[in-house]
């Protein structure tokens, strides 16, 4: 096999294994662990074929195991740099113009939810059941994502919200935790929980004007910013978690 085929096999293995398990692969290669043991230690759906192809490629091109380990570590480092690179895009819903492409806010929210593997934090003022978002949240919960949603309440809105409690939009999602702002009764009487955002795994942040309602995410003119990488997603998530710890945000039980 050519060196190019070995490099392609290494890229494929890292892509399939993900960053954490690719580090494990690099460690096995550095210790000169042979293919059969590596396959046993990295057992996972889809992983066996990619790891086996990598071992076959490095053997066919006489690449030493220690050199392969260094290459895998380099590839992991490059992926980490790419992940942490800050990318900012504006997101618009509603009428389009020639110079600004319009991408439905609903789809961006679904993409952010779908990107979560460990943690999803969201805040909204109003909320109504919306099937696309409910399906995405349910799928995230089923794959083990910890989901926390902060909502306003009818009592907190003091007549500016009508109908059912916003929290009821999420009651069908298993394991989802609902929070609200526990205002100081001696504070400002007209304060609102008006933030609208979603953070996935502290790496992706969507911050915008849209509530989690069908009209807001699908029919209105709404504007937002999608941030991938950098400090903003992490700091937003840390702020929410700290507000929970301090008791400013408290669990809400409808």
From TrEMBL:
Task: Name the source's superkingdom.
Answer: Bacteria
Keyword ATP-binding attributed? no
- Classification via InterPro entries: DrmC-like, PLD-like_dom, PLD_domain, PLipase_D/transphosphatidylase
CDD domains, alphabetically? PLDc_unchar4
Membrane-crossing residue ranges in chain numbering: none
Which GO MF term does the entry hold, naming one?
RNA endonuclease activity producing 5'-phosphomonoesters, hydrolytic mechanism
Q: What is its EC number?
A: 3.1.4.4
The PLD phosphodiesterase domain extends over 189-216
Per UniProt, the enzyme's principal EC class comes to: hydrolase
> Keywords for this entry?
Hydrolase, Lipid degradation, Lipid metabolism
Please identify the protein, giving its name as recorded: phospholipase D
Catalytic function, reaction form: a 1,2-diacyl-sn-glycero-3-phosphocholine + H2O = a 1,2-diacyl-sn-glycero-3-phosphate + choline + H(+)
The keyword Phosphoprotein belongs to this UniProt entry's keyword annotation: no
Q: Which family does it belong to?
A: Belongs to the phospholipase D family.
Which Gene Ontology BP terms does the record give? lipid catabolic process; phosphorus metabolic process
